[in-house]
């Protein structure tokens, strides 16, 4: 089995300091949270950024500042900006961070309800456009899927050349509007991707650690962080993203799975070696 790649989704666009005061907003807070997660064992930072008041933004200059601040503290970590941004953002707004030529970026492969009246829009043409733009820049997409139908969409678009094989999937499970995070759901998702793909699982809320354990056991990879869940255990807020990563590292060790460094993650994912 490959070593375990841990992705830390440190900030997100929806979670706020009201949910957990440790959610980072400022560039310094974001860099510190990224550094803590990296020291704990994360090799990928899935990055959303905020203005100082907590408003989510896809502003390229804010991303640039955060990239620089993170790289100053953890030069080898893989930074994976979001192209999902926040519900309601335009395509151009969402795509801004890919102009910074990151190694990876998210590619959300379908539209879904996102709680209440919110709809996270990703039409087929949007996915094709985002996919083509990533191919043109040599960016490896992290194919985010919130339901099984989105895997089917990614598979179709891969065959048509909008996404390069082998794909790397992120099964986001437990969003209010997507697939839930039961073991049978993860088995179904994993069995629906093409042979040779890699995958990670992001369990949302109470699904975070059960899905992490399943991911560790099934040979996948794991995403944790405040974007998905703010609790270390039932009713106990995590003090930092690092605490969530540390818990995954402990679980992985219990099951004999070693943790990948960023360079090992690059190799597993087929990214170019760091210069
Ligand atoms: N904030 C969500 C609406 C991504 O990063 O690509 C979308 C999201 C997905 O977080
Ligand atoms: Zn995200």
Task: Please give a handful of descriptors for the protein shown.
binds (5S)-5-amino-3-OXO-hexanoic acid, alpha/beta, binds zinc ion, 37% helix, two-stranded antiparallel sheet, eight-stranded parallel sheet, globular
List the helices and strands and how they pair.
Layout: E1 6-9, H1 27-40, E2 44-47, E3 49-50, E4 56-57, H2 60-73, E5 78-81, H3 91-95, E6 104-108, E7 112-113, E8 119-120, H4 124-137, E9 140-145, H5 148-159, E10 168-173, H6 183-191, E11 198-203, H7 208-218, E12 221-224, E13 231-233, E14 236-237, H8 241-254, H9 262-269
Parallel strand pairs: 1-2, 1-12, 2-5, 6-9, 9-10, 10-11, 11-12
Antiparallel strand pairs: 3-4, 7-8, 13-14
Helix pairs in contact: 1-2, 1-8
The structure holds (5S)-5-amino-3-OXO-hexanoic acid and zinc ion.
Residues 13-14, 82-84, 86-87, 106, 108, 114, 120, 144 line the site of (5S)-5-amino-3-OXO-hexanoic acid.
Rounded Rg: 17 Å
Largest sheet: 8 strands, parallel
Percent helix, as a range, is 25-40%
The gross shape turns out to be globular
- Report the span from N to C terminus: 27 Å
The overall pLDDT, averaged over residues, is: 98
- The counted number of beta strands is 14
Ligand inventory: (5S)-5-amino-3-OXO-hexanoic acid, zinc ion
Number of helices: 9
| Classification by helices and strands | alpha/beta
Low-confidence stretches: none
Main-sheet strand order equals 5-2-1-12-11-10-9-6
Strand content: 15-25%
| Helix/strand order, N-terminal first | EHEEEHEHEEEHEHEHEHEEEHH
């Amino acid at each position: 089995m490959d070593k375990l790649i841990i992705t830390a989704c440190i900030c997100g666009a929806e979670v706020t300091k009201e949910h957990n005061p440790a959610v980072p907003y400022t560039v310094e807070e974001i860099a510190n949270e990224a550094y803590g997660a990296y020291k704990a064992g994360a090799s990928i930072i899935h990055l959303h950024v905020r203005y100082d008041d907590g408003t989510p933004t896809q502003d390229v200059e804010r991303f640039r500042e955060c990239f620089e601040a993170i790289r100053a503290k953890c030069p080898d970590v893989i930074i994976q900006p979001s192209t999902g941004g926040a519900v309601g953002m335009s395509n151009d707004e969402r795509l801004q961070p890919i102009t910074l030529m990151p190694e990876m970026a998210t590619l959300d492969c379908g539209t879904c309800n996102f709680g209440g009246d919110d709809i996270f829009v990703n039409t087929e043409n949007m996915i094709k456009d985002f996919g083509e733009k990533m191919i043109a820049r040599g960016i490896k997409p992290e194919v985010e899927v919130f339901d099984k139908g989105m895997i089917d969409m990614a598979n179709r678009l891969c065959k048509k050349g909008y996404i390069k094989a082998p794909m790397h999937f992120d099964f986001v499970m437990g969003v209010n509007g997507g697939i839930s995070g039961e073991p049978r759901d993860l088995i179904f998702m994993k069995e629906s991707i093409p042979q040779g793909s890699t995958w990670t699982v992001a369990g949302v809320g109470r699904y975070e650690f059960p899905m992490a354990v399943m991911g560790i056991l099934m040979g996948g990879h794991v995403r944790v962080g405040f974007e998905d869940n703010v609790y270390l255990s039932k009713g106990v807020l995590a003090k930092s993203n690092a605490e969530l990563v540390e818990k995954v590292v402990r679980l992985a060790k219990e099951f004999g799975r070693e943790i990948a460094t960023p360079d090992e993650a690059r190799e597993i994912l087929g990214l170019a070696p760091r210069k």
